[in-house]
UniProtKB/TrEMBL annotation:
Annotated organism of origin: Psilopogon haemacephalus (coppersmith barbet)
Residue runs in coiled coils: 80-135
Classification via InterPro entries: Signal_recog_part_SRP72_RNA-bd (IPR013699), SRP72 (IPR026270), SRP72_TPR-like (IPR031545), TPR-like_helical_dom_sf (IPR011990), TPR_rpt (IPR019734)
Region feature (Disordered): 526-664
Chief location of this protein within or outside the cell: cytoplasm
Protein name from the UniProt record: Signal recognition particle subunit SRP72
Compositionally biased tracts (Low complexity): 610-632
GO BP: any one term: SRP-dependent cotranslational protein targeting to membrane
Lineage, uppermost ranks: Eukaryota, Metazoa, Chordata, Craniata, Vertebrata
Entry superkingdom: Eukaryota
Cited PROSITE patterns: TPR
Family the UniProt entry places it in: Belongs to the SRP72 family.
């Protein structure tokens, strides 16, 4: 026992455990020894083994004796519900159990009960752990602000540590006060940096790793502010540090995926692996885990993994049947597959099963119908949303869509129903007094304008009369009413025109100089000034002779003869002139041989014996000398050269010389 005591004081629980085991070999049901063994196992991180020892010796280790140790083991093994039952079943609620009870409630996201538990602890205890309790209390307030959108009350906590500053910043983010939250985070960063820099053996990388959670929250604020490039850069810097907190890595990876959206899909698929790390589900809240699963389903849709997208969205829908996003993701996937009718049917089924969320689903259905070109069906869906059908925005959308379809009667019906609804609602609210609200009057005016535009003058007149009754001093409404009556009943228009104010009462005191010098009149004033200046210059310069610019004389050709009349057709191309007869063919060109090889043109007449007076016979007689001599003087055709060949060759050489001058 002295060995156990000495090792326990020194913190050497592994050695103390060996001594305890020796004691238990002698007395296996020793309560103190079993308690010491459980504590040693907990201190060494062997929670499963410690819980096994407790459950094995239930007769000896009753709930009164070992309640805290059992609940703590269950808490550390993420068996939160079991830990809560163990704490509640304990006969005596010690301070240790109350501390653990607060932690268990926080993990179960029962923030109201958790807040009450920590307030009670802070009020009824005074020890060295007061700062930690205040930190936990501020964390509960931050969680309420972030996840339940509860306006946090001022607890009067002095922000003397980086944890308190950080939790305060998280609460401000939940309220949407991003700039104030960023200032708190910078303050927390300074606190933590000063606390770490004076420690021994702490490297710059260690400091950056500790600051990672603060920098991650800073990047999140940047993302909310629309500074996505800065946020992405900071997120990637944190991932490069490889922090050990799997919860932090999962949140950062998820936020990067939301920035990438349908772009940079390869990077998003790599980041998804960080969200699947072991133990993530115990580090994050339910809403964080749900958001990550939604983004996985959307990423599967963007990467055309239809089956994976359906599987994830179906799983999400089974976990949260009333949540909108799973069914919207399924509908989006069906639309990508061009199955619009099936998508609308899916949304309709969800709207029928969950009437509380029907409005948003029906708006999506209407959007799908508009995308298909079925505007009338979209209008029918929109008019079926009872809580929205009388809103000004919905009325405007319906009227615009019906006008596009040229269904004026339906558009007027929408106006009429909305006006009647406001009239009944205000009558019930004011117990029959029925004063017209600004929305009601604006709807009546818009209805009148719409009817006038589409030629429904009689219907418009009744609306305008209603408006004029509500405000007889409204000159604009009276003018519209007179204009409408002038087209239907001119006599009535004349009677109403008497109610118009006289020109004297309508005259406005206008400062002309101020009006001319105003911003809107600058262009007109400049233009007028310019015109006046031009007129003045013209008046001043009437007697002056304008200087003419000297024209340069054109150059005449070298062979110009003033006595000879110039050719009137000299400006026309040569081919278009009346005296053009075409190009003359050269004599030498005519003599160039053409045709098949061996044929001649120039000497053909000379060689043709039939054209001469004393031509020899085609087959000369043997022994005829004249015939032989004549035949011997004839040059065979193959050896004959064209007459114009030498001259042509010479001319070509001259041309080549002339053309080659620039090439050298």
């Amino acid at each position: 026992w002295s060995e156990v005591n000495r090792c326990g004081q020194n913190g050497d629980f592994a050695r103390a455990l060996k001594s305890v085991n020796k004691i238990l070999q002698i007395s296996k049901d020793d309560v103190t020894a079993l308690q010491c063994k459980v504590v040693c196992l907990i201190q060494n991180g062997n929670f499963k083994e410690a819980l096994s020892v407790i459950n094995t010796h239930t007769k000896v280790l009753t709930s009164d004796v070992i309640a805290f140790e059992k609940a703590y083991c269950e808490y550390r093994l993420n068996r939160i519900e079991n830990a809560l039952k163990t704490i509640q079943s304990a006969s005596q609620q010690t301070d240790k159990l109350k501390e653990l009870y607060g932690q268990v409630l926080y993990r179960l996201e029962r923030y109201d009960d958790c807040l009450a538990a920590y307030r009670d602890l802070i009020r009824n205890s005074q020890d060295e752990y007061e700062e930690e309790r205040k930190t936990n209390l501020s964390a509960v307030v931050a969680a309420q602000s972030t996840w339940e959108k509860v306006m946090p009350e001022d607890l009067g906590l002095r922000e003397a540590t980086y944890e308190l500053c950080y939790n305060s910043a998280c609460a401000l983010i939940g309220q949407g006060k991003l700039n104030e939250a960023m200032k708190k985070l910078h303050k927390a960063e300074a606190f933590l940096f000063l606390a770490l820099i004076f420690l021994q053996d702490v490297t710059e990388e260690d400091i950056e790793a500790e600051l990672a959670i603060i920098h991650g929250q800073m990047a999140y604020i940047m993302q909310l502010q629309g500074r996505t490039e800065d946020a992405l850069q900071l997120y990637n810097q944190i991932i490069k540090l490889k922090p050990t907190d799997v919860g932090l890595l999962a949140v950062i990876a998820n936020n990067i995926i939301t920035i990438n959206k349908d772009q940079n899909v390869f990077d998003s698929k790599k980041k998804v692996k960080l969200t699947n790390a072991e133990g993530v589900e115990h580090k994050l809240s339910k809403k964080q885990l749900q958001a990550i699963e939604f983004n996985k389903a959307l990423l599967a849709m963007y990467t055309n993994q239809a089956d994976q997208c359906r599987k994830l969205s179906a799983s999400l829908q089974s976990q949260s049947p009333e949540h909108l996003l799973p069914v919207l993701i399924q509908a989006a996937q069906l639309c990508r597959e061009k199955q619009h009718a099936k998508a609308v049917g899916l949304l309709q089924d969800f709207a029928d099963q969950h009437p509380a969320n029907a409005a948003e689903i029906k708006l999506t259905m209407a959007q799908l119908k508009i995308a298909q070109g079925s505007v009338t069906k979209a209008c029918m869906i929109l008019r079926s949303i009872e809580e929205l059908q009388h809103k000004p925005g919905m009325v405007s959308a319906l009227v615009t869509m019906y006008s596009h379809e040229e269904d004026i009667d339906s558009a007027i019906e929408v106006f009429t129903q909305a006006i009647q609804w406001y009239q009944q609602f205000q009558a019930s609210e004011t117990r029959g007094a029925n004063p017209k609200s600004s929305v009601h009057l604006s709807l009546i005016r818009e209805a009148a304008n719409f009817k006038l535009k589409h030629g429904r003058k009689k219907e418009a007149i009744s609306d305008l009369e209603e408006l004029w009754k509500q405000n007889p001093k409204d000159v604009h409404t009276l003018a519209q009413l007179i204009s409408a009556y002038s087209l239907v009943d001119p006599e009535k228009a004349k009677i109403l025109s008497k109610h118009l104010p006289s020109s004297d009462t309508m005259s406005l005191k206008v400062d002309v100089d101020a009006l001319e010098n105003s911003h809107g009149a600058t262009y007109v004033r400049k233009k007028a000034g310019k015109l006046i200046g031009d007129n003045q210059q013209k008046e001043q310069g009437q007697g002056d002779v304008k200087k003419k610019k000297k024209k340069k004389k054109g150059k005449l050709p070298k062979n110009y003869d003033p006595k000879v009349t110039p050719d009137p057709e000299r400006w026309l191309p040569m081919r278009e002139r009346s005296y053009y007869r075409g190009r003359k063919k050269g004599k030498k060109k005519d003599q160039v041989g053409k045709g098949t090889q061996g044929s001649t043109t120039a000497g053909s007449s000379e060689l043709d014996a039939s054209k001469t007076a004393s031509s020899p016979p085609t087959s000369p007689r043997p022994g005829s000398a004249a015939a032989v001599s004549a035949a011997s003087n004839v040059i065979p055709p193959r050896h004959q050269k064209p007459a114009g060949a030498p001259a042509t060759k010479k001319k070509q050489q001259q041309k080549k010389k002339k053309g080659a001058k620039g090439g050298w």
